[in-house]
Specification:
Alpha-Beta Plaits, 139 residues, alpha+beta, 4 strands, binds uridine-5'-diphosphate, binds magnesium ion, globular, 7 helices, 4-stranded antiparallel beta sheet
């Protein structure tokens, strides 16, 4: 089956709390296929570049410090309507507002340490996938 792609990161709070296996299981049960996956720790430079769209926001410095505080799991996921369906699976940015059963509702601890990333558009999914995986470089 082929579909559109989205990009995700299991964030440092969820990796250090050993939620990685449960989150991957939720993703697979949600109908997503794994296309690429790796375990790594972001450098400050890479975290700043990934979140460059937020560089003027008051939470930017804290966000970069948090995202570099420990290892993450980065992955590319495939499904029909991948971007929107994955945002539904993970829930609202603030776990206090996330729907019951969503990954953020189950595993996030705060609006910052919210367990998981999901791309917000097809264009950003392609950019973010190519940021971590050479097999998703755009030509
Ligand atoms: N974030 C934060 N404080 C805020 C809003 C966002 O620390 O007030 C962090 C949080 O980790 C979030 C990330 O910055 O996931 C990117 O924010 P965005 O608005 O893009 O949320 P997302 O797309 O991840 O739901
Ligand atoms: Mg976002």
């Amino acid at each position: 089956m082929s579909g559109s792609i989205t990009f995700t990161m299991i964030k440092p709070d969820a990796v250090s709390a050993e939620h990685t296996g449960k989150i991957i299981n939720d993703i697979l049960e949600g109908g997503f296929n794994l296309k690429a996956m790796k375990y790594l720790r972001l450098t400050k430079e890479k975290a700043e570049a990934f979140y460059a769209v937020h560089k003027e926001r008051p939470f930017f410095a804290d966000l970069v410090a948090y995202m570099t505080s420990g290892p993450i799991v980065a992955a590319v996921l495939e499904k029909d309507n991948a971007v929107a369906d994955f945002r539904t699976l993970i829930g609202a940015t603030n776990p206090a507002e996330a729907a019951e059963g969503t990954i953020r509702k189950k595993y996030a601890t705060s609006i910052e340490a919210n367990a998981i990333h999901g791309s917000d558009s097809d264009e950003n999914a392609a950019i973010e996938a190519s940021f971590f995986f050479s097999s998703f470089e755009r030509y």
